């Protein structure tokens, strides 16, 4: 599938739930949120049907997100169903890791190929402050279970926020002994993220090079997304950056998103897209759904405008747990 700006769209992120067992400061307010009713969320059967249609228009890579995707029951069954679709080449999972150690064997057996684990600090007190849960031990158990799984691609995602500056180097040091990519993701001004401080790629890179020495750019592709990577002498793994704010990568964007309620989002910045759930539940045939998907992708926006402080009426107003990041 080629969009209106000539970009090849082959990557679909699917949010399977808005529920999460953490309450991260950039994702949810301290008073909590009102969860959507289960009936509002797409069933696994509906997701698998849509995935088969997306595969017909060129989607090759699928990532399951939340909320926390492992908070939804029987996720391996969804992985198994997607894995059976002709054309799907990889199925990845983004998780906070708390439930990963227990569920990983079933996920691997079902066809999971990669895990991205979100972790902003290795300091227990700071972890509790950022996530509002004392659960660092469970997150680390999930991380090390993933690292021990043969053939599983593992990445660690960290959001630099200023307050976790002292932890950016210890997190990077995990890539010294382990074959994983430690990635630093610039905080985007969506939902609660708009009110928090952020560190730029240049600031983080300066901290890391002060600790480890110069980093060398790496041309190797490490997945479906927009990350770019560096090597450090003596490290088994790599250091990566996803820098939507300071190094806009919209001209090469290859992804669209499906929310837990079945809304096809073609850009993280905007609320615009297409409601596929209504079409599904109104009994629409495959050709109607395929045309809706093609039309939405064809009209995918050229780029985000996160640095435009004035905002626009079509800007996304939901928090990250509701749209899948």
From TrEMBL:
Family, as annotated: Belongs to the radical SAM superfamily. MoaA family.
InterPro entries for the chain: Aldolase_TIM, Elp3/MiaA/NifB-like_rSAM, MoaA, MoaA-like, MoaA_NifB_PqqE_Fe-S-bd_CS, MoaA_twitch, MoCo_biosynth_MoaA/MoaC, rSAM
Entry binding sites for [4Fe-4S] cluster 1: 20, 24, 27
Residues annotated to bind GTP: 13, 63, 94, 155, 255-257
Subunit-structure text: Monomer and homodimer.
Associated pathway: Cofactor biosynthesis; molybdopterin biosynthesis
Binding locations of S-adenosyl-L-methionine: 26, 67, 118, 188
Lineage summary: Bacteria, Bacillati, Bacillota, Clostridia, Eubacteriales
Free-text remark on how the cofactor is bound: Binds 2 [4Fe-4S] clusters. Binds 1 [4Fe-4S] cluster coordinated with 3 cysteines and an exchangeable S-adenosyl-L-methionine and 1 [4Fe-4S] cluster coordinated with 3 cysteines and the GTP-derived substrate.
Required co-factors: [4Fe-4S] cluster
Range of residues in the leader sequence: none
KW Transport (keyword) present: no
Reaction equations catalysed: GTP + AH2 + S-adenosyl-L-methionine = (8S)-3',8-cyclo-7,8-dihydroguanosine 5'-triphosphate + 5'-deoxyadenosine + L-methionine + A + H(+)
Entry function: Catalyzes the cyclization of GTP to (8S)-3',8-cyclo-7,8-dihydroguanosine 5'-triphosphate.
Residues noted as binding [4Fe-4S] cluster 2 in the record, renumbered to the chain: 250, 253, 267
Protein's UniProt name: GTP 3',8-cyclase
EC number(s) stated in the UniProt entry for this protein: 4.1.99.22
Domain Radical SAM core: 4-224
Top-level EC class: lyase
Pfam families, per database record: Mob_synth_C, Radical_SAM
Keywords: 4Fe-4S, GTP-binding, Iron, Iron-sulfur, Lyase, Metal-binding, Molybdenum cofactor biosynthesis, Nucleotide-binding, S-adenosyl-L-methionine
HAMAP family: MoaA_B (MF_01225_B)
Record bears the keyword Ligase: no
